[in-house]
C-alpha cells in the first residue's frame, strides 16, 4: 500500500510516510486555529428542504465561533441563504458537497514540530459504497479535501484507504481509538488485515498504539464510528456512552467497550480512566419527522419508528467551549454536568441537536477541527 503527497501523486513518487517525516495528528482538545463545517441542503437526508437542520447548524457554528474561527462550506445555490443565516464573523466559503458531514469528508489535519500544517486525504465511499453506503454519488465530497488543501496552501498526503474522520479518535500522545466494526468492515477495505490497517494508521497519523473496540453504537448507520461511542477527553481519560438497561442492545455494546478500555494501556503505558455518559432516550423517528424527507432509491431510508443512534459523546471540543447535543430533556442536564466536570476550563454549551440526529449523526460528525501548528 503506497502513500503519496499531493506533489508526488502526479509523478508516482513515494515519499516517506507522514509519521516518518515528523507529522502527527493532535488530539481534539489541543489548541485549534479553526473549525470547518458544511451547509446542509440534501432533501433525502434533511427534512423539509433542510430548513430545520440549517437552523441547528447555525446554532452549532455560532457556539463554536465563540472559541475559534469557523468556516462553513456551501454549494453555490445556497450561498446567499447561508450567508444571511450565519453570523457575520462565521466565514462562508463556496465549497460544493454531496452532504454536510465534514468530519468524514473533510481532511484529517496533521501538525509538525517545526510549525507546518498538513492533511491526510483518505478515500471516501459514502460509508460503504454500493454495499450499504448511504447515498450516491459522492463525487463532490471526494474533492473537498483537495480544495481545502489548496485554500490553506498545505501539503496533502493521499492515503489509498477508505476511512472517515469519525472512525478515529486520538489522544495526541500516541494512542488511537477505533472500532473493528467500522475499520475492518468488508465494505471499506476488504483486502486489508487488522495488522495492515494498524500499520497504516501508525504511519499516517503518527500514533504508536491502536485500541480496538468491538462495535460502535447500536444501529449507527456509519457501521460503528467510534466518535459516537467513545472519545478521549484528556490523555489517559475516555468518555463512553452508557446505559444501565440490560434489555437495551446498547448495554452489551457499551459493556464490551468498557471491558476493553479498562484492560488496555495507552502508548505511554497508562491505564485508562473511563467516564460513563448516559445514553439519551432511546430515541426514535417520529411520523412527522419521516414524512418531510424525500424518498430516493439511492439514499438511506428513514422510517417512522426507526431508532436513532443518539449519543452525548458526539460533542465538539473547542478552544474555550465544548458544544454538546441536547437530545433528551430527561438526560440533558446530567450529561451537561458530567461534561462540565470533565472540561472545567471550558464552557459547555448545549445546542438542540435532534434535527442533526435525524440526518444520521451529530455535532462531532458535522465539524472538523483545524489544529494550531
Topology:
Layout: E1 4-5, E2 32-38, H1 51-64, E3 69-74, H2 79-85, E4 91-94, H3 102-105, E5 108-111, E6 117-123, H4 139-152, E7 155-162, E8 169-170, E9 175-179, H5 180-183, H6 194-205, E10 209-213, E11 230-234, E12 237-242, H7 249-262, E13 273-278, E14 283-284, H8 287-291, E15 307-308, E16 316-317, E17 321-326, H9 332-342, E18 347-352, H10 354-358, E19 368-371
Parallel strand pairs: 2-3, 3-4, 6-7, 9-10, 12-13, 17-18
Antiparallel strand pairs: 1-7, 2-19, 5-6, 8-9, 11-12, 14-15, 16-17
Summarize the structure.
The protein has 373 residues and is of the alpha/beta class. The protein has 10 helices and 19 strands. The two termini are 28 Å apart.
What does this molecule look like?
With 373 residues, the chain is α/β, with parallel strands linked by helices. It has a single domain, classed as 5-stranded Propeller (L-arginine/glycine Amidinotransferase, Chain A), CATH 3.75.10.10. It contains ten helices and 19 strands. It has helices at residues 51-64, 79-85, 102-105, 139-152, 180-183, 194-205, 249-262, 287-291, 332-342, 354-358, and strands at 4-5, 32-38, 69-74, 91-94, 108-111, 117-123, 155-162, 169-170, 175-179, 209-213, 230-234, 237-242, 273-278, 283-284, 307-308, 316-317, 321-326, 347-352, 368-371. The strands form six sheets. The protein has a four-stranded mixed sheet with strand order 1-7-6-5, with helices on one face. Strands 4-3-2-19 form a four-stranded mixed sheet. It has a three-stranded mixed sheet with strand order 8-9-10, sandwiched between helices. Strand 2 (32-38), helix 1 and strand 3 (69-74) form a beta-alpha-beta unit. The chain is globular, with a radius of gyration of 19 Å. It starts with a strand and ends with a strand. Mean pLDDT is 94; it is low at 7-14. Keywords: Hydrolase. Pfam families: PAD_porph (PF04371). Residues 1-20 are annotated as: Disordered.
Amino acid at each position: 500500500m503506497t502513500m503519496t503527497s499531493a506533489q508526488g501523486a502526479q509523478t508516482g513518487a513515494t515519499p516517506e510516510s507522514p509519521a516518518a517525516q515528523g507529522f502527527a495528528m493532535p488530539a481534539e482538545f489541543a489548541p485549534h486555529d479553526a473549525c470547518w463545517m458544511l451547509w446542509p441542503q440534501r432533501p433525502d437526508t434533511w427534512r423539509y428542504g433542510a430548513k430545520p437542520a440549517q437552523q441547528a447548524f447555525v446554532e452549532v457554528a455560532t457556539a463554536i465561533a465563540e472559541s475559534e474561527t469557523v468556516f462553513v462550506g456551501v454549494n453555490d445555490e445556497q450561498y446567499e441563504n447561508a450567508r444571511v443565516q450565519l453570523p457575520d464573523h462565521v466565514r462562508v466559503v463556496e465549497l460544493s458537497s454531496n452532504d454536510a458531514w465534514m468530519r468524514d469528508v473533510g481532511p484529517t489535519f496533521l501538525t509538525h514540530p517545526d510549525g507546518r500544517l498538513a492533511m491526510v486525504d483518505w478515500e471516501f465511499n459514502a460509508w460503504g459504497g454500493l454495499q450499504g453506503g448511504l447515498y450516491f454519488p459522492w463525487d463532490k465530497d471526494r474533492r473537498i479535501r483537495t480544495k481545502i488543501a489548496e485554500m490553506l496552501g498545505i501539503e496533502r498526503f493521499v492515503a489509498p484507504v477508505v476511512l472517515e474522520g469519525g472512525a478515529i479518535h486520538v489522544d495526541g500522545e500516541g494512542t488511537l481509538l477505533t472500532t473493528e466494526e467500522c475499520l475492518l468492515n468488508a465494505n471499506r477495505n476488504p483486502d486489508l488485515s487488522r495488522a495492515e490497517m494498524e500499520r497504516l494508521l501508525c504511519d499516517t497519523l503518527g500514533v504508536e498504539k491502536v485500541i480496538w473496540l468491538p462495535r460502535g453504537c447500536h444501529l449507527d448507520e456509519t457501521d460503528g464510528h467510534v466518535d459516537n461511542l467513545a472519545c478521549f477527553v484528556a490523555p489517559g481519560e475516555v468518555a463512553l456512552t452508557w446505559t444501565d438497561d440490560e434489555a437495551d442492545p446498547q448495554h452489551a455494546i457499551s459493556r464490551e467497550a468498557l471491558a476493553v478500555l479498562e484492560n488496555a494501556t495507552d502508548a505511554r503505558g497508562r491505564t485508562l480512566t473511563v467516564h460513563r455518559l448516559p445514553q439519551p432516550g432511546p430515541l426514535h423517528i417520529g411520523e412527522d419527522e419521516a414524512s418531510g424527507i424525500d424518498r430516493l432509491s439511492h439514499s438511506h431510508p428513514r422510517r417512522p419508528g426507526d431508532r436513532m443512534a443518539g449519543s452525548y459523546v458526539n460533542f465538539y471540543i473547542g478552544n474555550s467551549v465544548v458544544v454538546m447535543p441536547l437530545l433528551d430533556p430527561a438526560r440533558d442536564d446530567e450529561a451537561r454536568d458530567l461534561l462540565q466536570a470533565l472540561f472545567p476550563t471550558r464552557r459547555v454549551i448545549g445546542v438542540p441537536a435532534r434535527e442533526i440526529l435525524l440526518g444520521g449523526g451529530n455535532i462531532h460528525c458535522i465539524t472538523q477541527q483545524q489544529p494550531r501548528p
